């Protein structure tokens, strides 16, 4: 319980502040290992928001570790606006995006001083490790796009998150001889911002999230829409492996209803991340309570109360904190040959799905720590 968590891009695709700093703070309070998988935009936001010196302090003391990914997942469009419009999924790595080039630029831009910026970047560099995406992420996402049931769920979640009510939307996708995707969609989706690029981008990002969390053998910090899509992707993967038509439900909510509005206090400016350091120091002394234990509401509540007792966090208004827990460990073990009626053979899986199943069989738990400020989405029955 609360051993390790991966934090990735959580904002809209074009956001200049893609990290939910409040969710990051809550993750650091609960988890012993907080792994921020950052691109340039996320790294720039961290340096700017916390300040170079404070970010360096957080990294030095192990409250977060940072990996930098130079590649960017993209949806490309050819012949836009014509009957021959086609989409594809891929990743790009622009020139001058390697970590040793990016860090000095960011620190110089934030400090406004060449010498100080370079010195801080040099001090910070041991705490930011390079990490690469694999091309298998894009291959798996392309295969996901051809899973009509999964794609319809992705469309529904995105539409509902935009306030468009409904269960079924037209999003017909086909692949031509060039490998590109042709899409025919409802006008209501396009008007609400649920464009083909948005849908395919969400499918691609879901694969990226799962790749990094599984590689790190960690849980994942996410928002309700992305979290619901991740859950469906994993359920569909296991369902196909079992050769079953039964719709699986392998995730359930876990709610701590007596936490405090820590995220709002930090992002709203009532308190700062400098104020938060003393709370994290206290939390370090109590992490042994919950490490390697099964999720338990009473234990989580006792831990939270103990680490925040007599601190400024204890004086904040109440707030719900929410997780989505993976409950399919037994199913995954069954797929690995532990016995039972679910064991299946001869099922063709993508390399991406085979990778995820291997991790699940080896007891990876893809739990999600979810932004509780956003209303959870209702899953289809």
What does this protein structure show overall?
This protein is of the alpha/beta class and 381 residues long. It has one domain (4-370). The protein contains 15 helices and twelve strands. 39% of the residues are buried. The model is unreliable at 338-346 and 375-379 (pLDDT under 50).
Helix and strand topology:
Elements: E1 4-7, H1 21-30, E2 33-38, H2 40-50, H3 52-60, E3 65-68, E4 72-78, E5 86-92, H4 99-111, H5 114-124, E6 128-130, H6 136-145, H7 148-161, E7 171-175, E8 181-185, H8 187-191, H9 196-215, E9 219-222, H10 224-241, E10 251-260, H11 262-267, H12 273-284, H13 297-308, E11 318-326, H14 329-338, H15 351-361, E12 368-370
Parallel strand pairs: 1-2, 1-9, 2-3, 3-6, 9-12
Antiparallel strand pairs: 4-5, 7-8, 10-11, 11-12
Distance between the termini: 29 Å
The total of beta strands comes to 12
Query: Which percent range describes the beta-strand content?
Result: 15-25%
Order of helices and strands: EHEHHEEEHHEHHEEHHEHEHHHEHHE
